[in-house]
């Protein structure tokens, strides 16, 4: 088990210790996901780096949600 401590700044920010960054393979600019599971918070590297991938972590997206995402993508491209 890897155990590290980090303090919260006045802006609510934390520094992820180097050992944790190495284990997760985190690099500058990566996005991470905070997931609540059984009363604990799990930190994971967001491989896809998109809001859609974060939403997909909660379970399959409904057809309506997929249509909304498609409309948003179409507006931005």
Summarize the structure.
With 77 residues, the protein is α+β, with helices and mostly antiparallel strands. It contains 3 helices and 2 strands, in the order αββαα. It has one domain (18-76).
Number of strands: 2
What is the H-and-E element order?
HEEHH
> Which strands sit side by side, in order, in the main sheet?
1-2
Structural class: alpha+beta
Number of domains: 1
Largest sheet: 2 strands, antiparallel
Distance between termini? 44 Å
Globular, elongated, flat, extended or rod-shaped: what is the shape?
Answer: elongated
**H/I helix tally:** 3
Radius of gyration: 16 Å
Can you give the mean pLDDT? Answer: 82
The proportion of residues in beta strands is: 15-25%
Poorly predicted residue ranges: none
């Amino acid at each position: 088990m890897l155990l590290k401590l980090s303090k919260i700044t006045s802006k609510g920010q934390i520094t992820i210790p180097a050992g944790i960054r190495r284990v997760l393979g985190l690099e500058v600019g990566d996005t991470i996901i905070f997931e609540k599971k059984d009363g604990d918070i799990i930190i994971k590297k967001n491989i896809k780096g998109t809001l859609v991938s974060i939403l997909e972590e909660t379970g399959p997206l409904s057809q309506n949600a997929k249509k909304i995402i498609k409309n948003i993508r179409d507006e931005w491209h």
